[in-house]
């Protein structure tokens, strides 16, 4: 059973989601928290497998909360709950170690599937949502500079990637699992795993989430916007 913590400053959202998720046989909601600092303190005691974390909260927001948790308890995974208005914070959260994000109004089954994906080591970057997020970021005055206009030139380390590693990196940016990438590229899952390890090593990245962010940020993965 997967242990879950729900973090949101709005009690209706927090308690409602916790109640709905607790009805699922594969999940156990072990606690809730009202902001990132509260989540950090409770996580040390409750040790959830996955934390569903709102991004924009008074006090310690979801980005800073994710950073606190991932630095001290890297075994705990964080899945962000967002709105399109949070687009400028989404990539910050991913860069601090979040394993993906979902919109708050997505169906319960979608949220549960995302939890299962993250628990199995995957990354959740919904393609349609990511395309819209990038569009919002490009049109927002508060967008992060690296994503303004055309994608910035990729670091020279990408020149060390083989053609197949480029292909795998592109698919990582779509949030695909190793199995899904294997099906798309007609190679074995073990081969994909090796390519992912090589990509992370060559680019000096922390994990596959960082590789996915890299692919999107530098235009290796493209979205129709």
TrEMBL record:
Keywords, comma-separated and alphabetical: DNA-binding, Phosphoprotein, Transcription, Transcription regulation
Domain HTH luxR-type intervals: 154-219
Subcellular localization: Cytoplasm
Gene3D superfamilies: 3.40.50.2300
SMART domains: HTH_LUXR (SM00421), REC (SM00448)
Pfam family of the protein (one): GerE
Domain (Response regulatory): residue spans on this chain: 3-119
Superkingdom classification of source: Bacteria
Modified residue annotations for 4-aspartylphosphate: 54
Protein name: Response regulator transcription factor
Organism: Neobacillus paridis
